[in-house]
Write a structure and sequence with these properties.
Rossmann fold; binds adenosine-5'-triphosphate; six-stranded mixed beta sheet; single chain; 10 strands; alpha/beta; binds magnesium ion; globular; 25% strand
């Protein structure tokens, strides 16, 4: 006798939204004080991001994209409004739980790579795992596996200055993925790269969403990158639309 067992269909494939969003940003604002003058950068940002989804954030230079990404990555706090991450209201978190959530839940890829010079690709990828208390042998095998997955299995012991820009960005991506974060944030990850390297980085980010069910938020100026996202959020005069 055969029994029909329903096969769960991934959200990204079915387009159905059954779960709560991983990120929920509501009426979020961020201003800064500079020499007694208030600078309003984010005035009203409201959007959700689900697991399995790739969202591109676009907007003019100075529109607040990096400011917003810093808040999403728990590196900064909003001036008002709410930011819920994995059902946790982050605005009331103390520094301890906030940095734990950041370390476990968020992987960053920055435009300027931010790799440690004079350390090998392997050591760079292992940094978040050192902070997370992963044992040395496990760190090494995981870092090797990640570098192989981004096509750098032959560059494990190379230091950043011995790598091309595209290779350094792939090391940065491998590092961001090392603790299998639920949320991957990438700030202009392809800004300094040629078309082939940009495509490779974007392929990897999309794969993280599709295969690992991560939420991916990528800031970009590049229309080709934005076109490949599931959704585009535009920042205009401090507001999302
Ligand atoms: N810590 C800060 N103190 C004061 N002003 C700040 C601070 N951080 C950002 N700003 C201001 O906020 C505005 C937005 O900056 P942000 O870096 O978020 O822009 P962006 O959209 O990422 O720009 P770009 O595309 O050039 O990277 C800028 O005018 C910047 O000067
Ligand atoms: Mg920026």
């Amino acid at each position: 006798m055969s029994v029909d067992v329903p096969v769960p269909v991934p959200v990204a494939v079915s387009g159905r939204r059954t779960s709560a969003p991983l990120l929920r940003v509501e009426r979020l604002t961020r201003h800064f004080e500079v020499s007694g003058t208030r600078i309003d950068v984010l005035l009203d940002c409201t959007f959700d991001v689900h697991r399995g989804e790739v969202v591109a954030i676009i907007g003019q230079s100075g529109s607040g994209k990096s400011t917003l990404l810093n808040v999403l990555g728990l590196l900064d706090t909003p001036s008002s409004g709410s930011y819920t991450f994995d059902a946790v209201d982050t605005t009331v978190l103390r520094e301890g739980p906030r940095s734990r959530l950041r370390g476990e839940g968020v992987g960053f890829v920055f435009q300027q790579f931010h790799l440690l010079e004079r350390r090998s690709a392997l050591a760079n990828v292992a940094v978040p795992m050192v902070l997370g208390g992963v044992p040395a042998l496990r760190r090494r095998s995981r870092a090797k596996e990640l570098l192989e997955s981004v096509g750098l299995g032959h560059r494990l012991n190379s230091q950043p200055h011995q790598l091309s820009g595209g290779e350094q960005q792939r090391v940065a991506l491998a590092r961001a993925l090392s603790r299998e974060p639920a949320l991957i944030l990438a700030d202009e990850p392809t800004g300094a790269l040629d078309a082939a390297s940009s495509t490779m980085i974007m392929d990897q980010l999309i794969e993280q969403a599709r295969v690992r069910d991560s939420a991916v938020v990528v800031v970009t100026h590049d229309p080709k990158i934005a076109d490949r996202a599931d959704r585009v959020v535009e920042l205009v005069e401090g507001r999302t639309r």
